[in-house]
Amino acid sequence: MSEINAKRTVAQRDANRPINATGFRNSISKGWGPVDRSVNLPAGLAEAAAAHRAQLRAALPGRRIAVAAGRAPVRSNDTDYLFRPDSDFVWLTGCQAEGAVLVLGSNGEETLYLRETAGPDELDFFANARDGELWIGPVPGLKDWSEALGLPCRPIEDLPAGVRGAVPAVMSTYGVEPLLDAVVSTGPAALYELRRVLSELRRIKDDWELEQIRAAVDASVQGFADVASELPEAIRGGGERWLQGTFDRRARTLGNGPGYSSIVAAGNHAPVLHWVRNDGAVREGDVLLLDAGVEVRTLYTADVTRTFPVTGEYTAAQRQVHDLVHKAQLAALDAVRPGAPYSAFHNAGMQVLAEGLKDWGLLDVSVEEALGPDGQQHRRFIVCGTGHFIGLDVHDCASSSAEAYNAGTIEPRMTLAVEPGLYFHPHDETVPPELRGIGVRIEDNVVVTETGIDILTEALPITTDGLEAWVRSHLPA
């Protein structure tokens, strides 16, 4: 296209935009009444966030710290994915405003920087399709967020002045907010240290956080029941996508949405650890591996898995595999105790699985050799671990040091997902034909107590008999 034609095309396009019409500009800025911009936060959120900030200051005394919420990534052209703020930022503020930045001063000062709402007399009000209120609806302003959170709030344009100065240097979450990255230089060591400290603080949940996780699990249990009731429709042709939509609708209704991409894996898809395509058929005789969790509106998520027969009855081979995984799950849950090594429940579940695989003739070495550091032959059938932290992230506290995570100790108020499984791929010629295409995972969410654990997912059965009865109880009469 020539330069002249290009200019003509732009001119023609702009001529049809009301933003350039004087009459429109005069009209659009007048006659607007007040709107509700209030922030409706759950009870206790602001207090919990303030306590979290105090924990961070105590862990990094005298440091200047900046943590950003981030921005929605582009999905395609001029459309974005839904915004979901950085988990560390949410833990420290309870705020979900896109582009916001929290700055903690070295002397205890706290300031939240965010974008002020554009009024009707400003161009952004009607001309900005991404942020303008005429396009996206009323948005809380600085005053609204300040009143809700008990934090001083300033315009994001003031951020450079708020972090200016070399002493002490600012530790920040690099790569989350371009404006913050432009005005603060945080080296890799300082970035790692900040994320590590935040992750390790987040391992221990307070009462308010435990309430959020319980609510996420309860909503997820409802979602699993919804899926069971829709199994006939999936078999008639709706397939995995129908069931994904069923669970995700519940997640969106009771919370913010799914806490991660739901795994709805029927038949030969069940051995695929992260089957998130969910585009397969559901057939009579299949087992369905459903790994899904509701993220509540405060952004805490559950992470639950059950593997159940779509018509209410396991085959002999499916039952065989499920019973072994169930045995491993009981051993793993029994090993989750305060004071125990974090690796204890992982090792307990793996011991049971390796012994079972040996009994089935699927290990050509001893159980002891397989479980040794240079063996691990049993991991062909379970390449993942058997659990992790849960919370604001489905794999929570992931930036913790190895000493605090894998080599750490289980403590009260930790929240864990415990999830042994076995996965026999349909093209794995090392296993008997009757086992090929069977994948089973059982995943419970637990809170560590002073004496043991509280299993939050106990409303969902984990035995073969229990799951058969559970499925049949939800099928239409």
Automatic annotation (TrEMBL):
Its cofactor is Mn(2+). Its EC number is 3.4.11.9. It is an enzyme of class 3 (hydrolase). It catalyses: Release of any N-terminal amino acid, including proline, that is linked to proline, even from a dipeptide or tripeptide. Coiled coil: none annotated. The keyword Transcription regulation does not apply. Residues 1-23 are annotated as: Disordered. It comes from the Bacteria. Keywords: Aminopeptidase, Hydrolase, Manganese, Metal-binding, Protease. Residues 45-181 form the Aminopeptidase P N-terminal domain. One of its GO terms (molecular function) is aminopeptidase activity. Belongs to the peptidase M24B family. This is Xaa-Pro aminopeptidase.
